[in-house]
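Lab notebook, bench 4. Still working through the backlog of constructs that have no structural model yet. Next entry is a single chain of 379 residues. Request: give me the structure tokens for it.
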Amino acid sequence: MTARALTSIVLLCACGRSAERTPPRRAVTDASADAAVAVPTLGDAAVLDPVTIGAVGDLMLGSTYPRSTLPPRNGADLLAEVAPLLQGVDIALGNLEAPLFDGGTTPVCTPAAIAEKNRGRGGGSSCWAFRMPERYGALLLDAGFDVLSIANNHIDDFGPAGRARTIEVLDKLGIAWSGPSGTVAHMHVRGRAIDVIAFATYEGLNDLDDHVAASALVAKSAKTADIVIVSFHGGAEGVSARHVPDGAETFYGDRRGAVKSFAHAMVDAGADLVVGHGPHVVRGMELYRDRLIAYSLGTFASYRGIGVSGVLGLTCMLEARLAADGRFVGGQIHAMRQLAPGGPRLDREARVVPMVRELSIADFGEHAVKVADDGSLTR
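Model written out:
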């Protein structure tokens, strides 16, 4: 497999970061498996100097399909209020919930595709397909994103051409990515090698349902990387999907994975942080073997695409601080809210914080992460 298939080769100071952000906060590169940087044995100093990960959920900044529903000023203000948080962490990670693609046709909204999708469900004619303008990749770069998951149910809304063009755009911008089968984003942050691996339940992507293959991919990274982060797009959707079940989930006929057993298997294989998205609502957070699992971070940024009414509009940036050996040592829920037509805004009332606390306790009991009123997270 070529280095391009794994992720882009990036030096942030040379890839279009704005002048206000130089010198760069970190360098990101495609490191080969045998080029990991050694880290000293864990001690108090390592715990006091953790790597900070800023993770968010789904990103769909506006679509040109089936009609143009783009934000004012070409989206220049959509992420402005939350960008300082993304820029203030070592690595900012999100899920790209649409291809970056200016042309093509969608194979998922043809009459035949809709009929097949609705077979056995009493018919229906609805179809959801998204396509973000290629120029919107620069909005994500400028907001502070370093690495994106492209493993989800919308990355192929415009077929292989849309996926391929998305990868080309991200490579050109210097944003690392993971998602297609076998791909791992390799990064270096402050002398530490960090791998990010994205999973979903859809064809041609790292398979959320194949725990054996997924564990092997994570274990391979764990041999060479100091910290391994797993991102997954799984679980049912909507207000009724806020709790994490023990078994497999489905939604409108799609298999959406057994996310709890998957997350545990990834930690067992060597993952140090597991973050989920896909349900479009926040879910609880669990501590498993001293590693943090966030089962869904909600919809981070949508404009007239993904619904944001009520609890669907409550979201956050998870700031997770990881020791040199990957252990979770603390964190913060940065509370945000979206109101139609969309776009994240800081929520001074922090409505999402008690929701995460209650869901965590209900679903994980004594293994729930401790969530304080101010959003701080502790073991």
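Notes after review: The chain has one domain: 3-378. Residues 159-173 form the longest helix (15 residues). Flag for follow-up if needed.
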